[in-house]
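Sample intake sheet
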Amino acid sequence: MAFSNKSCLVLATILMVGILIFSQQVSSQGECGGALQGLLNNCAAFVTKFGPQTDPSKACCDVVKAADVPCVCQHIPPGAELIVSMEKVVYVANFCGKELPHGTKCGSYTIPPASSFEIEE
């Protein structure tokens, strides 16, 4: 299915409105040492439900490395998961060196246990 320029503009507008609403909910909570706003500003493109999973930018990783990611996961506002993929959030955290333990909840997503086929070092 091909998207027209108008469809892409509408989708981008909806995405930005959703991110702004999410940002407003998050910043009003004042949780996690203020890291949520920086994460939204630098990592939103890498955690939206729209589009493929991609490696985050250095700017995104810099913010992730400084953030309390478990705190962020515990304070995902209701409705945010309509636009934010928790699986991508976990991927970005892991990629940036902030691996979350198996069984940790990030929003409604629970990080699955390690596969029994993985080789432990």
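Comment: Confidence is low (pLDDT under 50) at residues 24-29. The radius of gyration is 15 Å.
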